[in-house]
């Protein structure tokens, strides 16, 4: 693997080089002392990853990463900078894959780059690129989501201000309120005020919900024939709520839990892309899965050359969503390929998706079951039954769900 490090302080680069040697990192490393020099080097050599500081004279790290994103889209882009460089980081947030604060030890840097490059390899296969190329256009990030994301970066943002952002889009408001009042949330009373909806959902959950609504609505506009985007969205929201329950039970920290919720809400959007590209072949894949008694994603790989998980992750990577979310979406059917083999946001999403389709009884495990192997690898197989009991009410529909008592926290 070849990695280009960029920092205007030569001493910082020398220190980094010494750390990498001490860690025995098996990379070919080059070093540049400016953004301009980095661009010259990128023109003559291929790099798997670019790791840059933010504050540099002339072309800063944000400008450099935006350039790399445009001209070398398959290169992993990492920011290694001081947390105080917040404004510059925000300017590059759509172009970077990961942010690491200085000082950063070589072990963490190595892990971050290795797992980012491994995920990139999943997302740049020829078959996947051909599939995505068959879509006339990729949907854009909803404007309301962008506005919410910007507002939530302000620590002084209030529930009222967040609710008013949603209220500016009448269609989005109607959909948010429809979903808040659906059986998934088990509310005992009707909510008609978007500001009240924010107070019940929580701002971060609202953000992921708005993103999902925007995606599903745009794909409906593209004309996904013979496929119910509404049914799929209900499944994604159910998995998202179960993910939060499991994540809280296992004490994920707030950021990890937010990533897990967002990934769960978006985990199946690749199905929308596939149906937009070729609904007839999607029907063939579904039939093959049924006849051969194999998971749908395996049938998709055999017919399309890629599955909906990789396609959904590709879309999120184009939008510049955080690498952790992209990784969960990409691996939610093949979690044994994950870099980390301990309970993580990926585990919460994989378990929730597994349990959401299990019904009232857990399925009997088989030796070749990818997910069962994964649960054993992360040492949580014995927890499936307790998670199943914890989430059992989420799977209930309509009238049964509405009879359930209102929990203290009804957010997804």
Automatic annotation (TrEMBL):
<feature type="domain" description="HDOD">
    <location>
        <begin position="138"/>
        <end position="335"/>
    </location>
</feature>
<dbReference type="InterPro" id="IPR013976">
    <property type="entry name" value="HDOD"/>
</dbReference>
<dbReference type="Pfam" id="PF08668">
    <property type="entry name" value="HDOD"/>
</dbReference>
<dbReference type="InterPro" id="IPR001789">
    <property type="entry name" value="Sig_transdc_resp-reg_receiver"/>
</dbReference>
<dbReference type="InterPro" id="IPR003607">
    <property type="entry name" value="HD/PDEase_dom"/>
</dbReference>
<keyword id="KW-0597">Phosphoprotein</keyword>
<feature type="modified residue" description="4-aspartylphosphate">
    <location>
        <position position="53"/>
    </location>
</feature>
<feature type="domain" description="Response regulatory">
    <location>
        <begin position="2"/>
        <end position="117"/>
    </location>
</feature>
<dbReference type="InterPro" id="IPR014626">
    <property type="entry name" value="Sig_transdc_resp-reg_put"/>
</dbReference>
<dbReference type="InterPro" id="IPR011006">
    <property type="entry name" value="CheY-like_superfamily"/>
</dbReference>
<dbReference type="InterPro" id="IPR052340">
    <property type="entry name" value="RNase_Y/CdgJ"/>
</dbReference>
<dbReference type="InterPro" id="IPR006675">
    <property type="entry name" value="HDIG_dom"/>
</dbReference>
<dbReference type="Pfam" id="PF00072">
    <property type="entry name" value="Response_reg"/>
</dbReference>
<protein>
    <submittedName>
        <fullName>Nitrogen assimilation regulatory protein</fullName>
    </submittedName>
</protein>
